[in-house]
Amino acid sequence: MAWLTLILTTPAILVAALVLSTALSLFRNYLDARTIGVPIRFVPISPLNPFWALVDKKVLPIFRRLPYGGNSFTRYNWRGWEIEDRYRSHQEMGDVWVLVTPLKNWVYVNDPEALMSIFRRGAEFPRPVFVTEVLNVFGPNISTAEGESWKTQRRIATHCFNEQTNDIVWTETLSLAKDMLHYWLSKTSLPTAADDLRTLSLHVLSKAGFGKSFRFQGHDERQSESSPSANYKESLQTILENCVLILGFGVNFIAHPWLPRRFRRVHEAWVSFHSYMTDIYEEEKRAFAAGETSDHNLMTSLVRASQDAQKTSGGLTESEIYGNMFAFNFAGHDTTASTFTFATYYLAAHPEVQNWLSEEIHAVFGDREPHMWNYRADFPRLKRCLSVMYETIRLLTPVPPIKWTADHSRTITVGGKSYLLPPHSMVAPSYGSVQTDPRFWGSDSLTWRPSRWIKDGKPGDEEFDHPVRGAFIGWSEGTREFSQVEFTATMAVLFLNARVDPVTQGGESMGKARSRIMDLIANDSGYVLLLQLLHPERAPLVWTRQ
To answer: The whole model's pTM is what?
Structure first.
């Protein structure tokens, strides 16, 4: 009987202990938040809780149907609430407010000048590496390092992302985009563009990262069960498509033989990709020591820059080189592919923007074919193509930046007033708000309008316009030009002589079909590892020659 009582009461005791612990943590953090002197809201679960991140959007609709379901918990306690909320919270509470959670306090800032100051003061407001350390899949990297280690990695990475790399990205993208468009034009309809755009992004990374070119294959042309160890591309593709498993469970765990086959395939890919990088690393070290030259790509550049740095200030370790190659591929593949997908669907709903792009493309290139396009001469002139990327990221930022105060109190100035933030405070630039606030972007701030980034001028000779410095934080830090070159080159190829439209369904008009595309973007965007269009296959597209 005693055992039965224990079995029945233990869950209740554990739940009570969890509730008590949460309440005490919230109260302690509330006392810290009060010292700042700004509006406060509460949520009972930390946004950094990995289990909650898996179930938040499934569970919260149940709570919203309960009496008093419209509260801070249902409003703020899920990934991506900032995109839905936009600037509403800051209109209610001002340009700075605090979200109290059981783990940390989150300070949300909506002031461009304050945000510029926070990003400039990187030593005072570092990145919270305890959040990004899951990216140490192959070793420490620029996303997880701090202090002097971060400075070293940043210096060497910056050296590798140069004009020579951008030229490679430009040339490879033009070739792949041309093949992708040819494939799309051969289809009466395209169930989803997302898979093919991910393939393009992966192949560009393959060339720029490792010097390997691969022929473009459409999503229904690829073998579904290629071995992840067949070649470098298959290994990397398997890793990138299954990052949730690696980041969630860790490399050591997924190696267990009793796990499902999918786990074993991912671990096989990890082993194969690690072996591939090791072979390149050893070969490049040998070539460097012998004074031999080699093909230019990110991997060889990292190895050679590190070997050079070893002579003076110190370079990267072998594991740091592997770690950074993974970080470059992870960031460059998923973020760029997600932005590509959103932009393509936005364009399908806006034929006037397609015409606007085509006008610039023809002004820049005339009758020249893509193989004659020149990166250094032509890329700087394609401002309209680049503006599509900026405008898409403005409304749908794939990976928002976060900072924190670490072990010290820090001061920020918002609207001329100073606020002292306690130690261990998370600082969240309110990207969903500052990038759509009508004060900075005008009355149509929630409208997708790429022309807002362009000053009046002649197509091909226009100037890029940043409406308010600090009001766009899509690239607060990082190697952004790589993705800009890739995106711009792809847009130029696609809309030189082609256009995209939604496939009409059930006798609807084209206008209704375009409205359906916009509804899909608004209602079917969500976070997996980053913000993406969850079900693009619900809105098939069709590509035609102009």
So the answer is: 0.92
